[in-house]
Amino acid sequence: MLEHIEQDGPISRVALAAALGLSQPTVSQVVAELMAARLVEEVGTGLSRGGRRPVLLQLSDQAGYIAAVDLGGTRSRLALFTLRGHRLVDETGALPAATTPEQAVRLIADQVRRITRAAPVPKPLLAVGVAVPGVTDPATGVVKLAPALGWEEAPLGHLLAVELGLPVVLDNDVNAAALAELRFGDGRAWTSFVFVWVGTGVGAGIVLDGQLYRGSGNCAGEIGYLIVDGPGPERQGPLGFGHLERRLAIPYLVERARAAHLARPTADDQAALGALFTAAREGRPEASAVVDEVIERLARALTNVAVILAPQAIVLGGPVGALVQHIVPQLAGRLRALSPIVPEIRASRLGDRAGLVGAAALAAMHAKASILERFERG
Questions:
Q1: Given this model, what pLDDT does residue 48 score?
Q2: pLDDT at 74 (0 to 100)
Q3: What are the φ and ψ backbone dihedral angles of 285, each rounded to 5 degrees?
Q4: Between 20 and 30 A from 300 (CA), which of 22, 60, 165, 189?
Q5: What is the pLDDT of residue 134?
């Protein structure tokens, strides 16, 4: 019932009873319990179909806040959210790629405390969600493999929970982004889609029948290791980036932009990427050649994804994914030339904040479940 109120609210008790196939007295009883737990609130009245106007319900923000962390190889992005997904406070801090998990935990904990103190109204912090660029085990909170961070078998969830004294929920950043798309973005219109993130690395979050598909060892979606053109060098050690990542992700594109003198040597990565794609739109041959490579390699990778999973759509996100929205028509055309199985292709409207929003969704789901469990026990 809480899920229906969150997704379909404001909604009346009568509409809830019809949607769930329950009696109105049962719905009224459960709604009263949800209101007592401060998870649901009344927000005015709806249109009358004869008789009294129905009282409308929606998810409440009164129970407390949640913190979200999008952990990157070069920076961490944090925000404080309400349970309804309203972002209140933002902070971005440097996170050197060579840092240890213990150093990262201290940095994250300090930032979480800072944004909590900046909250407009004092409320308890209920949970922390963390999106991590690598293979994670959400059940144990262990980061199994994160090349962008240089980590293996890092117990990040446990360390951060101990440091903050709060529940910590973590997941792969692209899975978190896919969850954000499923709950708040265009993914609400599909039962199956693949969210492809192109940033420092390349990965995919797979949604099948409305649920995240994780695969054995939570490794589903590691498309950065796809082979898209010719024989490539093998990974250098266990933390090496994959074949596709080394031909499509930010470090490669920034290197190409600087080599072609499309970006200043002192420009940061995002500025260099923007200069590359702007020059391509202006028709500069050296930039167009690089973007044509992006289209070809990405089209081959997405064709592999499409013919194996046959999703309704593929959503592009991440720092590079946000820039390729201008080449979606060419990309879709190339997919049609490579295969008869072509899903809808579109750029995410959540942009490069999808991982952060997904981390908030993870924390909110845990917080709501914990509140209900405590309320049921006592």
A1: 72
A2: 65
A3: -60, -40
A4: 189
A5: 84
**Which residues, given as ranges, of the chain have pLDDT below 50?**
98, 237-238
The answer to whether the CB of 347 falls within 8 A of the CB of 229 is no
DSSP codes of every residue in 289-339: HHHHHHHHHHHHHHHHHHHHH--SEEEEEHHHHHHGGGGHHHHHHHHHHH-
User: Which tokens hold the place of 161?
Assistant: 């929970």
pLDDT at 323: 76
CA 94 to chain CA centroid, nearest Å: 20
Q: Which two tokens stand for residue 24?
A: 């109105």
Distance CA 246, CA 267 (A): 21
Res 234: pLDDT: 58
Peptide bond into 133 cis (omega under 30): no
Q: Which residue has the tokens 């072609």?
A: 260
Tell the residue number behind the tokens 């962008």, with chain if given.
148
185: which residues sit within 8 A by CB, 6+ positions away?
315, 348, 349, 350, 354
Beta-ladder partners of 76: 71, 93
Token pair listed for 32: 């009263």
Cα separation of 333 and 146, whole Å?
Answer: 34
Tokens for 299? Answer: 């089209």
Instruction: Write the pLDDT tens digit of every residue in 204-229.
Output: 999 999 999 999 988 899 999 898 88
Q: What are the DSSP E strand ranges found in 199-312?
A: 202-208, 211-213
Q: Alpha helices, DSSP H only, in 119-223? A: 156-164, 173-184
Write down the pLDDT at residue 218.
Answer: 83
> Strand 65-71 vs strand 135-137: parallel, antiparallel, or unpaired?
unpaired
Give yes or no for a contact between 287 and 262, defined as CB atoms under 8 angstroms apart: yes
The neighbouring-strand residues paired with 129 are: 68, 169
pTM of the model: 0.83
The reported pLDDT for the residue numbered 239 is 53
Q: How far apart are CA 337 and CA 295, in angstroms?
A: 13
Q: Token digits for 279?
A: 């020059």
pLDDT value at position 104? 85
